[in-house]
Design a protein that fits this description.
With 582 residues, this protein is an alpha+beta fold. The longest helix has 17 residues. It is built from 15 helices and 20 strands. The strands form three sheets. The protein has a ten-stranded mixed beta sheet. Strands 1-3-2-8-5-7-6-4 form an eight-stranded antiparallel barrel. It has a two-stranded antiparallel sheet with strand order 17-18. Helix 9 packs across helix 11. Belongs to the AB hydrolase superfamily. This is AB hydrolase-1 domain-containing protein.
């Protein structure tokens, strides 16, 4: 068959870990490595893990009756025979860890081609879709039945499904979909038999009628297996499982897991790809629970997420903050963004934050904190996506682009172009490699000009801060020049002032006392936010700090009540309740 006429199908895998494999390592490997490596591929739009409910009490599964089922929808089955999927099935794409873990699992992997389905238009939902987070919380029930029969009997069984099985299924309150498949043309059985699988999905609050609906097929079958399951874990667009057992880095360098990060939790570093193809590297760290509240930190231009390092240390030094997860990411304008030439605007940067939350299956951020362009992005995200942001802190920014911004930034770009510095950037993370092509970067001259403008003079004489300033200078000098030139366009023309008065959410502002005219401008902002209802927002002015107060005064910024009265976290009803059993 040709991919020009794609065959829809199903990757259907039952798994039973052996006694030698711990639950913790099993879930770490599957949730961070095996599953996300597949759902990253465009022809695998989703992936779900189910756990059997027919094992009786606390009895574990067996090789004959496994405890776990994984199902992936496939939009084009032929792609399973091509790169990049085949890369995942053998070294180096199949890592040594994966080889070692899979040797400790009884696995039954089947490929099925789609035959038909019946959907309940009133109840069916795409559980992987962000708009159905709440439905995903409530879960999904599933029954499966597999038949082995002669090839000439398929049409009879299909008629039986349509005429006998579906009418009974439709009497079940909360039924969502019934679909049926046959073993794929990609992997025909050696014995010439055909295997049919019937998959029946229903809302978890309802009990399906007895599996006896599958007991009377119109033909004699050589084998029949019926099982019941409940939804256990839904994959997103990237690894997010923080109950990490051991450090691991994928050979392609895209994903890294880091256990036992001091002072709280573990960390995952990976990437999310936006709808227009931009690659956004991110770092998720902190509490291991998938439903723990999340704080998102948003950078200024020309820097990496490391500007928040000391802030995070102070934040997690408070035991009451150990319940949180933190997301940092490299926004457009830092390193090369494969596959996109989209004009960069603050609106687009705000949508990137929402796509980041979607990919990590986070229905609502407990707090969004951003500085400079990141502060404008934070403000825009809170104003335009209020249901996704519980509270925000916008730092050292404005709600409207200042006059002359385009000319000012144009002059800075010209400084970098004149210096002509290049680096061999090898990845979206900004890694260097001698084998990569040389790319223009911002360079030393503009970096020096920038940090002199960003930090107050006293900081250069403070031995505890001067090294941090040097780190920031290095971040600026190594920024991709092409991406800086494109990304900084977001600062040329934006205006969110009209949205400020009617904002009903929780928000605050923070600014370095030495950041030029911004303290006065942000005081005005704080009075305008929510003013239509007679409210104002809190403003924190950080003494002895300039444009990046989280670098100069990280303890003071961490002490600000970003999650206090105005930002008290209230778990949204649609929080994802994916969990792993230990």
């Amino acid at each position: 068959m040709s991919s020009s006429a794609p065959t829809r199908g199903l990757l259907f895998v039952t798994m039973q870990p052996k006694e030698t494999l711990s639950d913790e390592l099993f879930h770490d490997w599957y949730n961070n490595e095996h599953g996300p490596n597949r759902t990253r591929l465009p022809f695998i739009p989703n992936g779900f893990r189910y756990r059997a409910t027919d094992l009786g009490g606390t009895i574990n599964g067996t090789q004959v009756k496994p405890e776990y089922l994984a199902i992936y929808d496939i939009s084009d089955m032929q792609q399973l025979m091509e790169e990049p999927y085949q890369y995942l099935r053998a070294p180096p794409g199949k890592t040594q860890r994966e080889i070692d873990v899979m040797a400790q699992i009884w696995i039954d992997r089947m490929l099925f081609d789609f035959l038909g389905e019946k959907i309940n238009e009133k109840t069916f939902v795409k559980l992987e879709s962000p708009e159905h987070f709440e439905d995903n919380v409530k879960g999904n029930g599933l029954t499966t039945c597999r038949f082995q029969l002669d090839a000439g009997q398929v049409s009879q069984v299909e008629s039986w499904i349509k005429e006998s099985v579906i009418p009974v299924a439709e009497t079940v309150p909360g039924w969502r979909r019934i679909s049926w498949f046959k073993n794929s043309y990609l992997e025909p059985r050696k014995d010439g038999k055909v295997e049919i699988v019937v998959v029946f999905e229903f809302a978890p609050s309802t009990e399906p009628k007895s599996l006896a609906i599958y007991d009377s097929p119109p033909v004699e079958v050589s084998d029949s297996k019926s099982r019941t399951y409940e939804l256990f874990y839904t994959f997103g667009g990237a690894a997010r499982h923080l109950a990490i057992v051991a450090p691991w880095t994928h050979p392609d360098g895209v994903t890294k897991t880091i256990p036992h990060v001091s002072p709280a939790g573990s960390a995952v570093e990976s990437t999310v790809t936006t709808r227009d193809g931009a690659v956004l590297p991110f770092r998720l760290e902190g509490n291991a629970a998938d439903n723990s509240p999340v704080v998102v930190l948003v950078n200024s231009v020309l820097v990496t997420w490391n500007i928040w390092d000391n802030f995070i240390k102070h934040f997690f030094s408070k035991p009451e903050n150990h319940k949180y997860r933190i997301i940092r990411f490299l926004s457009r304008g830092r390193t090369f963004q494969s596959g996109t030439t989209s004009p960069v605007t603050v609106d687009l940067l705000a949508s990137d934050i929402i796509q980041l939350l979607d990919s990590l299956r986070i229905p609502q951020a407990a707090a969004l904190v951003g500085v400079s362009l990141g502060g404008a992005t934070t403000l825009a995200t809170a104003l335009t996506y209020p249901s996704r942001i519980q509270s925000f802190v916008s730092c050292d920014t404005s709600a409207k682009s200042p006059a002359g911004n385009k000319d000012a930034w144009g002059q800075r770009i010209a400084v970098a172009e004149k210096e002509g510095k290049t680096l061999r950037l090898a990845s979206a993370f900004g890694d260097e490699s001698s084998s990569a092509d040389a790319q223009p970067v911002v360079g030393e001259e503009l970096a020096e000009m920038t940090v002199r403008r960003w930090f107050v003079p006293e900081s250069y004489n403070d031995p505890s801060i001067a090294p941090e300033i040097e780190k920031v200078k290095q971040m600026v000098s190594t920024n991709s020049l092409a991406e800086f030139s494109r990304g900084v366009e977001a600062l040329f023309d934006y205006d969110y002032t009209d949205l400020l008065p009617n904002y009903k959410g929780k928000g605050a502002f923070l600014v370095g006392a030495g950041d030029g005219v911004l303290p006065k401008g942000m005081e005005k902002l704080s009075k305008e936010l929510g003013s239509a209802e007679g409210r104002s927002a809190e403003l924190e002015v950080v003494d002895a700090a300039g444009h990046l107060p989280m670098v100069e005064k990280p303890a003071d910024v961490a002490a600000f009540d970003i999650l206090g009265d105005f930002g008290k976290y209230e778990q949204p009803s649609s929080v994802i309740m994916d969990s792993t059993r230990t």
